[in-house]
Amino acid sequence: MEDEFEGKFIALEGPDGCGKSTQAKLLSEWLESEGYDVKVTREPTENPTGKVLRDALREKKDLPIEAEALLFACDRLVHVSNVIKPNLEVGKIIVTERYVHSSLAYQTARGLSRDWVEEINKFAIEPDFTIFIDVPPQVGFKRVGSSGEADTFEQDLELQKRVREIYKDLAEEGNIPQIDGTKSPKEVHERVKDEIDRFLHA
């Protein structure tokens, strides 16, 4: 979907436990200090569609992978319509934790075709800038476990290895900056900030 908006749309992507939430918070604080109006959001969302999806994942319901992918796409459609597009139209910078690349990584890692995943997400507004925060699966598992937020899609180490490789392939393909998420939050933030600063002033 091609649209022109007053605002800018930034997506933070990466495997589970890479530190997206921390970096979204730090990035929004820095952007606000620079005078920008910022909206931080995430997927799955806090909307009713996101709650259904989160509950299904948390309760480990036996969903076909196609149904899970469609739930993610449904939640994303609500996200785009109710949060992303309206905020971009009034000139805000949107920072989202996860977006379409997450569906491409997780759902193709579980056996769905990339073409099909792209097709059910073709409504999605393209981010103006995406950053991939990379951590090895073992690091991500340790972080997720310590935070007590491990959901069904965060349990399988082999899956996470496949997910990471797909993310890296997508980053290479899309010329997306890759940042080492094993560094301290402050060090990662400095890298994220540098990338965003260059993007905003290009």
User: In the CATH hierarchy, what is the class?
Assistant: Alpha Beta
Radius of gyration: 16 Å
CATH architecture tag: 3-Layer(aba) Sandwich
Count helical runs: 8
What profile does the largest beta sheet have?
A: 5 strands, parallel
Strand order of the largest sheet: 2-3-1-4-5
Beta-strand content:
5-15%
User: Which fold name corresponds to the CATH topology?
Assistant: Rossmann fold
Instruction: Return the structural class.
Output: alpha/beta
Terminal CA distance reads 23 Å
The shape, in one word, is globular
GO biological process, one term: dTTP biosynthetic process
InterPro entries: P-loop_NTPase, Thymidylate_kin-like_dom, Thymidylate_kin_CS, Thymidylate_kinase
Catalytic activity: dTMP + ATP = dTDP + ADP
Protein name: Probable thymidylate kinase
Would you give an account of this structure?
The chain is an alpha/beta fold and 202 residues long. It has a single domain (8-200), classed as Rossmann fold. 55% of the residues lie in helices and 12% in strands. A five-stranded parallel β-sheet has the order 2-3-1-4-5, sandwiched between helices. Helix 2 packs antiparallel against helix 3. The longest helix has 25 residues, at 65-89. The chain is globular and about 45 Å long. The model has no long low-confidence stretch (mean pLDDT 92). One of its GO terms (cellular component) is cytoplasm.
Put the structure in a nutshell.
The chain is an alpha/beta fold. It has helices at residues 20-33, 48-58, 65-89, 100-109, 114-120, 137-147, 157-173, 185-200, and strands at residues 8-13, 38-42, 93-97, 129-134, 178-180. The chain has a single domain (8-200), classed as P-loop containing nucleotide triphosphate hydrolases (Rossmann fold), CATH 3.40.50.
